[in-house]
Structure formats: structure tokens, C-alpha cells
User: Fold these one by one.
Assistant:
Number 1:
Amino acid sequence: VKTTDKALVVLWSDLQVGKVDHRGGTSALIERVEITKQKLIQQVKKEKPSKVIFADVGDTIENFINANDANQLYTNDLSIMEQVDLATTLAWDTLKALTDYVPEIVYLSVASNHCQMRINKQRVGKGTDDWGVHIGRTLARLALEVGLPITFIEPQPHDESLALDVFEDGFHVLGLWHGHQSPRPDQVPTWWRQQAFGNQPVAAATIGVSGHFHHLRVVELGSTPRGTSRFWVQAATMDNGSGWWKRQAGEDSQPGLVT
């Protein structure tokens, strides 16, 4: 590893494919993702990173079986098969475009509340029984078939988080989880600290990234063995809006792709 190497981390977060809300439905999402993809390509062309870490932060599809299942049944404009198909296609098109401009891509996926296997709103099965992880596996087969330079990483079967030593230097360690493990954003730092005490996958992370809360937040936390700060980056959302939160809290998260 050279000290001039650069990695661009892309937080592909909360697309919730199939969801219909105040920003529109599937057509609006497709248009938003395409515009975002073009901006991302321009950024990669400008910054010329040595690798891209493409982190699927979770809630890639809306699903029908989590907390708002009745509302999802009435408002979603895609079936579960169509949601998974489109989410796979949007990620695949973006990854293919990026391979024209960057020599290496690492794709990360973790479980999330909208993508998990659930029965009666309760999570069942392993941590990797998840549509987001499933989409990552499908993308891995496609990349292998056509020979694209993409490495795919998912958590251990019973975990919901992972960590990647980006430059294999023991210092630039990226931790990834969705965020649904904490009921509120201000409880995420405590969850991360507890994970460290329990020697969980994100224990060694120097930068932690998550989704779920649909707004950008950057928080400085604690310190690393080298005496620098750790940071938690909460990703913005790519979805069509959360009208229930807008009505309840009076706030509306602005869509965007955090890098």
C-alpha cells in the first residue's frame, strides 16, 4: 500500500425499492438513482481513487413484512420479486459504470430491517437471511460471469455487521451496519461501544457507517490506538420519502448519496 492510495466509500443507503411516498414511486426512484449515478461517476473521474468501497447500507427494498406491513400492502407499486429485481439492476448498472473508471471495487452488504426475513414482523433465521445480502450474492455471480474487478463481502451467518481493513494497514478499518439495532440515532454510539466490549465485528473499526435514520450525520467518537478520533457517519437516504415521519416530527429527510 502506498500512502498516496485513495479509497472512495459510497453509502448506497435506504433505496426502499417499491415504496410509494410523497416524492413519488418507482419511476421517481429510477430517475433519482440515474442522476445520482452520473454525479458519482463525475466524482470518481475527478478524484481518481485507487478503489471504491461500495457499501449497501441496507433497506435496499421496501418489502411487505416489517413494521408497516398493512401500509406496504396498500401503497407499494412493485411485488417482492419486482423489488428485488429492480434493486439488483440499479446496483449492477452503477457498479458496471464505475468499473470503467476505477481498477478495484469492494462491495459490502449487511442485514437491515426492511430486507430481513420476517414472520409476523419478527426477525427469523440467520443474520444473512436477508434480501440485501441475497442481492449482493446475485451481483457477485454476475461479476464473476463477466470478469468485473469486484470483491463481495457479507457478514458471518449470524452477524448483522462487518468490518473491512480498507488498506490492510490495521488502521483504516471501516465498520458497516444498518442502524436498526438502535431505536434512536443518539443511541448508536452506545451500541458501537458495546460491540467493542463484546469483541463483535465492528470492534476494531475506526470509521463506522450506517443507514436507517435517513439523514446525514457525522459524529466524532472516542479514539483509536493511534491517538486519532473515531467517526460515525450516518448515511442520507435515497428513498421516496417517509410521510409518516414528516407528519409526526415535522421533518423531512433530503435524499442523497453520501460518499
Number 2:
Amino acid sequence: INYQLAKFVASYGKVSQIPESTCPEVSFVGRSNVGKSSLLNKLIGRKSLAKVSSQPGKTANVNFFDVDGVRFVDLPGYGFAKTGGRNRDMWSAFIGEYVTQSPNLCVLCLLVDLRHPGLAIDQQAYDWLASAGVPLQIVGTKADKLKANEKNRNLAQLNKLFPSDRPALAYSSLKRDGFGPLAKNLFERVLAVSR
């Protein structure tokens, strides 16, 4: 995947608005402010293609990007801190509907703050996604905030709490640590379904 060939395609507020996909999809989801948009920007080498904000819940729609013929999808965060319960429920249903109705979804990257690997809200998201049979890659974000031994310990905890067919990856958007393994992982997943 040539990450330099990235462009914004569209933003949708309802799953019914999303046109049928004819190419592989890689999606990103996680708790609000876990670093989804920052990770996406680092992957594609742009500072602000995906909108980043310090305010939780900034990404309220499903945002699509074309990255060298692969659709990258930035999903709304779950557990919005500054949103009423009704909107939170709506967004949760929105995410669920998109994830379960995307036939070309190669992998869903579930982003978890590596400093807090055992939060109940992340466990609930994982349990639901795993039970729905969604292909998952667990990514521990904000790895630069931890010392090496803490990072290794928390990564081991991620693998225990969120078992998947591939081990969890540590990532730092600030230092770009973990970029190579994540990019390779996504390429392999896309290649597997493209054959």
C-alpha cells in the first residue's frame, strides 16, 4: 500500500448513505480521544487529512479515505465524554451497523490506550466485536507515554484481555513507534483478501 496516495473521499452520518464498496476496507475504532485520527494521519503521512481534536467525540461520522485503492475508515469513538446518552446509543448502533454490514472489511483496528489496558468500555467493545466475528487487530496507542517495562507488561495484558489471531501492537503517533509492524500487518490483511 502506497500510503502517500491518500485522499479524503466522503463523510457519512448514516450507514444507508454509504455507497457499496468494491475495494478492501481497513477500519479504525476505539474510545473517544484514544488517537484514531492521529494514527490515521501518521500512517498516510499527512498532518490533518483526518481531523484531530483534543475534545472527545470530534469524529461523529464515518469518514472514508482512499489509500492506493484501499478504503481506510475512521469510525466515531465510543463512550463520548461530552455527549448525552441518546447520542451515545445512536453512535454505538451506527458503528455496529457499519461493521457488521461491510462485506469488504479486511480488518478492524481496535485502538486501546496502552496506559489503561483494562477499561471496561474497551472490554465491552471487544466482546461485542469478537462475538460478531469481526476480524480484529488490537493496537495499543500512546506507547510513548510508558517506560519500556511498562509498555511490555501492558502489551502482554492486552494480548490476554483481547485475544486475536495476531498479537496486539504498540503504537505511538508522537514518535511513530510501531509504524512498520502496523503497516506490514495491514498490507498482509489486505493482500489476503485481494487474492
